[in-house]
Amino acid sequence: MKMMNKSEYQIAATIAVMLIFSIICYVYYSTQTNRTLGSERFHNSLVSSSLSIEAKVTVLHKIEKEFLLSRELHLQSVFDETIQAIYTELDSKWADNIVHNSAPLLKQLHVYHAAVEQQFKLHESIGLDQDSGLEGKLRNSAHKAEDLLIALKDDTLLSHLMYLRRHEKDYMLRGDDIYVEKFYDRIQKMRSILAQRNWSKDQKSELTQHLDGYEDNFQKWLVDRLNVQTVIKNTDNAFALTELYTKQLIRQAAEGTKAAAESNDNHRNVTSKILMLLGGICIIATILLVSMIMRHKKLAVKVEKLAKVDPLTSLPNRRHFFQKLNADVESEDSLSIGLIDLDGFKSINDIYGHAAGDQLLEAASARLTDQLQADVFLARLGGDEFGIILNTPQTEEKLFKLGERICMLLKQPFTLNFGTVSIGGTIGFAQFPEFAKTTETLFEYADYALYHSKFHSKGHPVLFSKEHESTILGQRKMEQCLIDANLEEELQVHYQPIVDTHSGRTVGMEALARWNNPQLGFVSPAQFIPAAENLGIISKLTTILMEKALKVASSWTTDTYLSFNLSASDLASPETPLKLMAIIMRSGFSPKRLVFEITETTMMVNFERANEVLRPFRDLGVEIALDDFGTGYSSLGYIQKMPIDRLKIDRAFVSDLEAKKISRDIMGTIVDLCSHLEIKCIVEGVETHKQLELVQLLGCHLIQGYYYSKPLPTDEANEFLKQNTNASMNDWQLVS
């Protein structure tokens, strides 16, 4: 049982002292006139009432703070009952009192009551648990999107959805704004990838609706969270004034009692009565004090229990789980945790209703409780997620066997009131202190293992391993190095030739980003470009690379153009296009020799915005190339609407040219389309002489690929141009 703290003891002692003093005053004045006797009783009553009000106000504050911790809805009714008791006390004892004015306290109590009611409503809106309010809507939207992606077997979007949910949970757990930015960047990427999918219109519309709902509810959740913080501050201020007015009321009552006592200083023969009654008074005061303390302890125990228990399953709840986990991490030498997620629960919930889902959760928790050993601490974390803590040392083999046993238990059919259903379970484990040194990291690693298992081996356990840790640490290290990097020095530009097979000349060079970090060495663009987008620094990379590329290209012959890639982030940024425009004008490089490469996905993310951004560059003479054609929307109808001058056929078509006639037919169609629309056609990824012959037979003569050259650093690229600008077709050799 929780012991009373120092302030509670002080309150109890004050009540005892004041009670004894009041009774002594009553005995002292008992020999005076009826008027004096009535006055003394009146003031004692006010003192007792004011102290009772103070005790109830203190309980109000504790109930409010317990609600913030547990978000248990029944505490609202407990709060309402307590404050109604105070209103009743003020109305019955103080309403007609013209000497002691209780109006300020009553008014402030209404202000405090209104602030707490607003706090309750905001928490109801956010969600009292993960199945209700905005948090429930967030989870529902995510589950609907997940089910659709599982049904469509789209592992890429499913992986992004898992990360999206991790960003949401990270922000809820840590409150760091970086996770909000990651959330919006991730959902934007998902929309971009969705735009590339060759799905039906209904499928795209359904996933878009789920993503929009997810993003909208997350935005509402952020707004309500900020409102909650403001309301909590207002509530604390309101309580401070309430407490002040309560103390003023106590002081007024005490001063009235003292004045009444001093007015009768001519009493006689009262000393003996005081001594006779003093013992009885002390006993009464002690009984009242003990009764108050016991009621307080019972209420505290009840509130504490309700705050730690899940009302549906009677298991420890999320708050209790983290309290124990924090304590165990501080005191234990080693421990393991597992996070369990029920597979297929949402389908049961959707088909049979929430009541059926609740029955299933109760049955699953009962089965796990019955079958798991006593040293396994089991808790419901919310929704269909459970957590376990094992304080005894565990080998990886034991953990894996326990995980398999849990998964097998959950695979067995459940016979419920509405019928028999079958689901499954997936579990992720993490160990302390082998990998994680803190509670937050331990939970994060177990969560990573769980979602890794759901993505790669659903229905089976996964133990967080060194490989997982290396992946996470490597990503974090790379991101930190990217943040700390001297990008002006570390970023490099390599150039890949674009050759005209009619003349045998190199007519252009595509600029490709390279990063050579002192700690990491050369990092693949496939790794650092997405990382830069996640960190929000891609525009910085773009401007640095543009300056470097234009500086090199200025030394080329005037009939050799530079091709430069722009990302969706570059087009979406309000500043980056202006910076690029300034760089071009400052470089002295002719805009007519510059080509911006934009992927289909980038162009279609926001078609109107892309047109708006690219128009000023086209007015200068910059040409626009549609890159990786055939991997994105692949809609020929959109080509005529796009502001493009060139089209680059993706290497995926080239690799199948020799083996698949359909690839040759598609490429021939694209070449014919370019010819009719009078736009230049460039084929990427040509690596063999046979591929080159087939491409030429199909009518394309602008070629880029390893057949001619890999991407080259600046010095080698310049030397390549000198040697090959006037070369004939017979002079080319395969460059590996």
From TrEMBL:
- Report the PROSITE patterns cross-referenced here: EAL, GGDEF
InterPro entries named among the record's database cross-references: Cyclic-di-GMP_PDE-like, EAL_dom, EAL_sf, GGDEF_dom, HBM, Nucleotide_cyclase, Rev_trsase/Diguanyl_cyclase
Q: Name one GO molecular function term.
A: cyclic-guanylate-specific phosphodiesterase activity
Which keywords does UniProt give here?
A: Membrane, Transmembrane, Transmembrane helix
Give the Pfam families listed for this entry. EAL (PF00563), GGDEF (PF00990)
Q: Which domain of life is it from?
A: Bacteria
Q: Does the keyword Manganese apply?
A: no
Q: Where is the GGDEF domain?
A: 333-466
Q: What is this protein called?
A: Diguanylate cyclase/phosphodiesterase
Biological source species = Hirschia baltica (strain ATCC 49814 / DSM 5838 / IFAM 1418)
